[in-house]
Amino acid sequence: MLLTDFEALSFDCYGTLIDWESGMVEALKGLTDQAKRPLSRDQVLEAHARHEANQQRYTPAKLYRDLLPVVYKRLAEEWGVHATHEDCVEYGRSVANWPAFEDSPGALQYLKKF
Predict the structure, then answer these.
(1) What is the topology classification, in CATH, of domain 36-102?
(2) Is 87 among the catalytic positions?
(3) Which of 8, 16, 34, 110 fits a disulfide with 81 by CB distance 3.0 to 4.6 angstroms?
(4) pTM (2 decimals)?
(5) What is the pLDDT along the chain (114 residues), one digit of tens a residue?
(6) Catalytic: which of 5, 12, 19, 87?
(7) What is the DSSP string of 40-94?
């Protein structure tokens, strides 16, 4: 099978090109550092996934950057940390800074040839 056999190619960006887990954990560092108990990476990601899925059930059309502030607020409440409205909004904006996987630029340049 060759790339030239296809007219279109579709794939998800987050988790495929963007390392959303590392971006998320880094963007939550200010919150997790203040938590009343130490949190492992897995605990942070599991709590985030739970709150994200719950919110998406109620607001499925909400843009991801607008959903993230709600998740941040719920995480802060769960971990006993005070979060301002601006903290929550800033977390939603953090998506723009989540890193690409190391091989993403090269893979996209390769795909661009076809």
Answers:
(1) DNA polymerase; domain 1 (1.10.150)
(2) no
(3) 34
(4) 0.86
(5) 787 888 887 877 877 899 999 999 999 999 999 999 999 999 999 999 999 999 999 999 999 999 999 999 999 999 999 999 999 999 999 999 999 999 999 988 988 887
(6) 12
(7) -HHHHHHHHHHHHHHHHHH-TTS-HHHHHHHHHHHHHHHHT----HHHHHHHHHG
